[in-house]
Amino acid sequence: MYKLLKKSGKVRRGEFHTPHGVIQTPVFMNVGTLAAIKGAVSSMDLKDIGCQVELSNTYHLHLRPGDKVVRQMGGLHEFMNWDRPILTDSGGFQVFSLAGLRKIKEEGVYFSSHIDGRKIFMGPEESMQIQSNLGSTIAMAFDECIEIPSPREYVEKSVGRTVRWLERCKTEMDRLNSLPDTVNNKQMLFGINQGATFKDIRIEHAKTIAKMDLDGYAIGGLAVGETHEEMYDIIDTVVPYLPQDKPIYLMGVGLPSNILEAVSRGVDFFDCVLPARNGRHGHVFTKDGKINIMNAKFELDGSPIDEGCQCPACKNYTRSYIRHLFKAKEMLAMRLCVLHNLYFYNKLMEDIRNAIDGDYFEDFKKEKLEAWQGRA
């Protein structure tokens, strides 16, 4: 259940009540594709850095270790020792990212495994069954993430198929939740709006899925090639047509500046691999913008990554030391920078929530964007 606590213009401050706890929104979900954050970050670490929701991937966990293995181990929460909400991505993004290894049909998608080439089939029912075995808090509907740009005729056909797939997802989710031995019989289902950059297709699709009374709604198929301006334009277009009494999730986005802009347009949920991926390569976020810790100018820098930051890296180590770790190819370098970046994102979301509560979000947004300009 989504509870709207405050609204200022389009900006929303809410709470999302789930079987695994209450999520304060707006929220950034920390991405652990294979039930782990890349960069040697544990579930205990996630709690220490303020993570509310962990996100894992259906397709990848189906391949390794296998969703049936996870089910036998008690579901994802038990398997990775995480008692807070988990969202599982449906595998729909892999329909986009593994374009050279798949074939799309009405019944679903035929993949060749990116690991060993073996044949895999995933349709709406299979995606729901895998996510039910994983026992996540929130399951995402199986959809096709459409490449931008794509011909209008293809987008129309794809969106029509995504609607039919969503209906099948809902039916199968209801069936699975009714079974006595289901890992999580209160599993929630989010639908996904698609339509590339065609506003009329996006609007019609939003209207159609809004009638299905799902637990939440996502805007998918963005941050895949379009400009930031196009992305913001689509968010502005779609949000008014999605149910306002349900959480709205912008998938796979993105930079801190993108998050601020999307919050101001009514978005509640975010996820992106970017903070962890950047951290593993020594690119770290600060209140003044992003820096590359491996730059020579940090060789004798005795300050933390970001002055005033309370993350484990900044409280204990210097830029000079972390740079040395990268140069020496020590794993600790990645761990510290991933911890810092995820803390930065989680703290940003906390600051956004406080700004909305305190009626100063617009000033907060302006101040942050000016500080990051030219650096992020």
From TrEMBL:
Keyword Repeat in annotation: no
Gene3D superfamilies: Queuine tRNA-ribosyltransferase-like
Reactions accelerated catalytically: 7-aminomethyl-7-carbaguanine + guanosine(34) in tRNA = 7-aminomethyl-7-carbaguanosine(34) in tRNA + guanine
EC annotation from Swiss-Prot or TrEMBL: 2.4.2.29
Binding site for Zn(2+): C309, C311, C314, H340
Domain tRNA-guanine(15) transglycosylase-like residues, every copy: 11-373
SUPFAM superfamilies attached to this UniProt entry: tRNA-guanine transglycosylase
Keyword annotations of the record: Glycosyltransferase, Metal-binding, Queuosine biosynthesis, Transferase, tRNA processing, Zinc
Co-factor remark: Binds 1 zinc ion per subunit.
Coiled-coil intervals, chain numbering: none
Residues given in the record as substrate binding sites: D89, S90, G91, G92, F93, D143, Q194, G221
Region described as RNA binding: spans on this chain: 252-258, 276-280
GO terms under biological process: tRNA queuosine(34) biosynthetic process
GO-annotated molecular function: metal ion binding; tRNA-guanosine(34) queuine transglycosylase activity
Keyword check for Transcription: no
Pathway assignment: tRNA modification; tRNA-queuosine biosynthesis
Subunit annotation: Homodimer. Within each dimer, one monomer is responsible for RNA recognition and catalysis, while the other monomer binds to the replacement base PreQ1.
Protein family: Belongs to the queuine tRNA-ribosyltransferase family.
NCBIfam families in alphabetical order: Q_tRNA_tgt, tgt_general
Protein name per Swiss-Prot or TrEMBL: Queuine tRNA-ribosyltransferase
